[in-house]
Write a structure and sequence with these properties.
It contains 7 helices and 5 strands. By secondary structure, it is α+β, with helices and mostly antiparallel strands. It has a single domain, classed as Alpha-Beta Plaits, CATH 3.30.70.3000. Strand 2 and strand 3 (77-82) form a beta hairpin. Bound molecules: adenosine-5'-triphosphate (2 copies) and magnesium ion (4 copies). It comes from Heliocybe sulcata.
Amino acid sequence: MAGSRYTYVKKFELPDNLLPGTYMVVRIDGHGFHRFCDQHSFTRPNDERALKLMDRAAQSVMEEYADITLAFGQSDEYSFLLRKDTKMHNRRQSKILSLLLSLFTSSYIFHWPKHFSDVELKYPPSFDARIILYPSSQEVKDYFAWRQVDTHINNLYNTAFWALVQQAGESTTQAHALLKGTQSAQKHELLFSRFGVNYNKIDARFRKGSVLVRETQATSTPVRPPL
Ligand code: ATP
Ligand code: ATP
Ligand code: MG
Ligand code: MG
Ligand code: MG
Ligand code: MG
């Protein structure tokens, strides 16, 4: 079909196909969730309803896109791993990023009432996203280890911080000052001696984050013997 005199504007759309044969990680993170948590009365340090809602949104994304093999979530973020040979949308970055991000966001809002039955959404939340390419499984393993170490460090800090505020009546400024420069072992000790909390007994979801894995099933189709 002959193009109109306007068709030339299409040429301004540049290709953005991602390098073939590389693992893609898409990380989605809540935009301004410090404020969002405050405005929606999240339980501190961990609101289990919110974590389960994040898991639910991630599940929608995994159900829709079969090339996602693994996902890891913590706090207001989720990371998705795509097969290195994925042909999804011809590996176009903006297509993949925008489809995963918008489905995650709409599913988060869609499932909100089931998880927060008594909390009305005050405004529509948004998330940001990026795609990172990794050449080998070693970087992929290290990527997920990095996110999980982050989960651990943040959760230990937040658990100690909120114990000081909620149970010892410290101001947030005092709690920050008390924890400044402390090592992990000192935070464990503080939680145990002052609050009787054995950190290692805290719900694993809070300490380690959530993992969604796609299980592959062997098909029952008989393999034809070679002729
Ligand atoms: P940005 O837009 O730059 O990502 P942000 O305000 O979202 O800014 P983050 O570094 O992403 O900042 O931190 C997310 C915040 O949301 C942290 O304060 C974290 O403790 C809080 N948060 C996220 N999920 C939960 C949850 N389930 N329960 C309690 N707090 C949560
Ligand atoms: P893709 O995922 O590739 O965008 P698509 O199915 O969304 O595929 P489009 O080319 O974007 O295809 O076309 C959108 C379709 O939705 C068209 O068939 C269009 O007529 C229909 N559509 C969109 N908005 C309306 C509307 N307000 N009323 C009736 N039909 C609509
Ligand atoms: Mg962010
Ligand atoms: Mg955030
Ligand atoms: Mg975050
Ligand atoms: Mg369309």
